[in-house]
Amino acid sequence: MDDTLKTFRQGVHPPELKTLTEHSRIRRMPFPDEVVLPLSQHTGKPAKLLVRVGDNVERGDKIGEADGFISAPVHASATGKIEEIGLWPHPNGSHSPAVRIKVDKYSPQTPRGRTVPDWHGLSPDEIRTAVKNAGVVGLGGAAFPTHVKLTPPEGAKIDTLVLNGCECEPYLTSDHRTMAEYPDRVILGTRIMMTCLGVNHTMIGIEKNKPDAIEALTAALPSDLNITIHPLTVKYPQGAEKMLIDALLKREVPSGKLPLDAGVVVQNVGSIATIAEVFETGLPLIERIVTVTGKGINEPSNLIVPVGTKLRDLIEMCGGLKEDAFEIVFGGPMMGAAQANLDVPLLKGTSGVVVLSEDECKRAETHACIRCGHCLDACPVFLNPQRLGALARAGRYEEMNDYHLADCMLCGCCSYTCPSNIPLSQLFQVAKKALWKRQVA
Amino acid sequence: MEAASSVSNKTFLITASPHLGGQDTTPKIMWSVVGSLVPIVAASIFFFGPSSFLVIFASCAGALLVEQFLGPKSALSDGSAVITGLLLGLTLPPGLPMWMAFVGGAFGIGFGKLIFGGLGQNIFNPALLGRAFLQAAFPVALTTWPAIGGPWWSLRGDNFAFPLMSASTDVLTGATPLGLMKFEQVATDNVDLIMGSIGGSAGETSGLIILICGAYLAFRNHLNWRIPASILLTVALMAGGLHLLDAARYPGPFFMLFSGGLMLGAVYMATDMVTSPTTNLGCWLFGFGIGFLVVVIRLWGGLPEGVMYAILLMNAMVPFINRATQPRVFGTKLKQVVS
Predict the structure, then answer these.
(1) How many Cβ atoms sit within 10 Å of the Cβ of residue A94?
(2) Using CB atoms within 10 A of its CB, is residue A322 exposed (0-12), middle (13-18) or buried (19+)?
(3) Is A25 exposed, middle or buried (0-12, 13-18, 19+ CB in 10 A)?
(4) In chain A, whose CA is at the least distance from the CA of B24?
(5) CATH assignment at residue B242
(6) Cβ contact, residue pair B27, A334, below 8 Å
(7) Would you say B271 and B32 are in contact if contact means Cβ atoms under 8 Å apart?
């Protein structure tokens, strides 16, 4: 184990706020009355519908097929009857096609007898196909289909697999608990991925505020694999792929390119554990570990719940909301999306539900920019948010391209650090969307 | 279901991420700068008596009144006009008539800041612009330094001169260490320089106190330490080099650092966030430019002191410095692409 703390340059250090759930064991919850499964739970094209209203489905049955390469299938996360197929509130704020399943109360919810593939005999291609058929996507938030990451383009040379156990967002602890409680599963997943990618070195990056996770994984390390664990400085956004690669390998992913172009594949530890589970149980990605936390919820917890569990049910499982619950966020408070509707379902990529209290969300007044330069000091990709912000406020979006708006990953460091409380990152979201629309039109 | 029904009719805040904010706010930064100036103002009153207080009070009054009546609504609460008033007062001779200090404060805010569009828009440090105006308008009054010593409560000049009238000059005047050096080739004791019992502007007293207050601000990230570090380093190295060449002609680095307005300028004027570069590399260059100009003006210029013009000149360079020192965006211009 490497004892020196690695990290990237710049970034911010928001309060960690993880004490609410960092030591609570993951609990498996009883099935809710119904689950809602949007066909679009991943980056890329939505899945193609395979079922009709009235169909009976069993837990693990495929209800949506991947549509193209950058897409992922969707599976029933509970045994029951399909009651409705239609538009349903989606965590991204839209209404999007989804399948609502009334959960069969009397079903034992044991999946149909299925053959668990023995991965030892599988070729890399067969492993990829199995991962794709299981609908595995990145569980860290972006929900990028995992099989795509496992398919390096012709000629690309991958030499390192990086496991992302940073969990740099405040409040969230699902990856932390996964590593602490299921270290063997993380290692098995790593083993399978190393075989699939043909790499012989894996680096696991974990922020040093998770000593029990580091300890558990270190204890589980096999002697026959070259896996190294690297404690990292606690800093946001340490878990951003490019920042993590920079910290661990001192390699810069070229602007506009993927980690593949730096010879690296990055996987979230939760996704790795899920891949292991696929080959252990034969079950696709139909449930996940989620942190439901925040100062506005009664019983902050780490839960295993079916994908498609509605926000309303999650809140109920955690003892309901407190009086001062003010904003509910899917994902972490730095990059997550605020939710307006309690009927939105938990997606494959939803790592946390954070209920913020009123005093946390209260925004101070916006002041004039005093050119203090704190945003330039915070930006992990070395943009000039001050200049970009001025251009965005003036609506000069095209010019923002010259200032590398495309390299902005909307991590929110600039907004977080701005003493004048200028919504920089928020302005950049608007600018990116506007530019994208102009490009399409 | 109790919990569920109780939440169903609640509405929630919907904002774009990030949903958390940092602790610093612009008024907090400004007021902490004001707070850090308190010991310096106190030292000034200790050395120059009530005169110093009157001058600082008058320049603050000028700055605040203009900000209040011509500035944007409730601009006073951000604290920036107080800083301008205090800093301007600290750069003035303690015996200055109050009405002149008042005019300086009003000019600094009005023409140094508001005319550009208010806080954050100005190019030049408002306090220094106010002082430059006074220096041009009242050159004699601005270079009349009270002698050190005498009873604490005595006025060091005609502070109460009637507006638009010059001061009657029946008080004891002295010279600043820089003036003594330049025009009479007399050196000042090092201990006096550090502790502050020297003639000069209200705030040109104890370099030590200014350094301590600046360190506090730097620790709280309310000023960029690179600027004073770069200025002081440049002055020390340049003055040291010249002193080695010709010790009789050029004063040593210690004298250069602790005399005149250099400490106040380096720690408080040059670090004004609005008028200094936004990049860290830029801050180093900015400080280097100021240090260089200070030494050049002091040693070869016509004036004994050059901090004010050095900072104002470098203020004008800030947009160019910013443009020239933009950091390399992550992942761009890589020498070799790792494959």
Answers:
(1) 11
(2) middle
(3) exposed
(4) A419
(5) 1.10.3430
(6) no
(7) no
Q: Radius of gyration of chain A from Cα atoms?
A: 21
Q: How far is CA A76 from CA A34, A40, A275, A290, A303, in A?
A: 11, 14, 18, 18, 19
- What does the alpha-carbon distance between residue B192 and residue A237 come to, in Å, rounded to a whole number? 50
Residue that is written with structure tokens 């600082």 in the block: B56
Mutation to test the B interface, candidates A342, A371, A384, A415, most B Cβ within 10 Å: A371
Whether residue A254 has a cis bond before it, omega within 30° of 0: no
- Write the pLDDT tens digit of every residue in B235-273: 999 999 999 998 888 888 888 888 888 999 999 999 999
Cα–Cα dist B50/B94, whole Å: 9
> Residue B40's CB: how many other CB atoms inside 10 A?
26
pLDDT value of position B9: 66
pLDDT at residue B3 is higher than 50: no
In tens, the pLDDT along B163-179 reads: 777 666 556 666 777 77
DSSP run (H or E) holding A327: strand A325-330
Does some domain include residue B188? yes
Substitution target in A160, A358, A376 with the highest count of B β-carbons within 10 Å is: A376
Q: Domain limits at B66?
A: 26-319
Asked if the Cβ–Cβ distance from A319 to B3 is below 8 Å, we say: yes
Interface of A with B in 184-213 (CB under 8 A): none
Domains along chain A? 119-281 (3.40.50.11540), 374-440 (no CATH)
Considering its fold, how many domains does chain B have in total? 1
B144 to chain A, any CB pair closer than 8 A? The answer is no
- For testing the chain A interface, which of B14, B30, B276, B330 should be mutated: the one with the most A CBs within 10 Å? B330
Residue A144 has pLDDT above 80, yes or no: yes
Spatial neighbors of B75 by CB under 8 A, at least 6 apart, are B67, B68, B81, B118, B119
Strand pairing class (A80-89; A56-57): antiparallel
Question: For position B5, what pLDDT does the model report?
Answer: 43
Rounded to two decimals, the ipTM of the complex is 0.88
Give the DSSP H/E element, type plus range, for residue B274: none
**Chain-chain contact of B330 with A334 (C-beta, under 8 angstroms):** no
Q: Give residue-wise pLDDT tens across range B41-63.
A: 998 888 888 889 999 999 999 99
Beta strand ranges found along A218-300 (DSSP E): 227-232, 264-268, 287-293
Are A320 and B3 inside 8 Å of each other by CB? yes
How many angstroms separate the CA of residue B23 from the nearest CA in chain A? Answer: 8
pTM of the model: 0.90
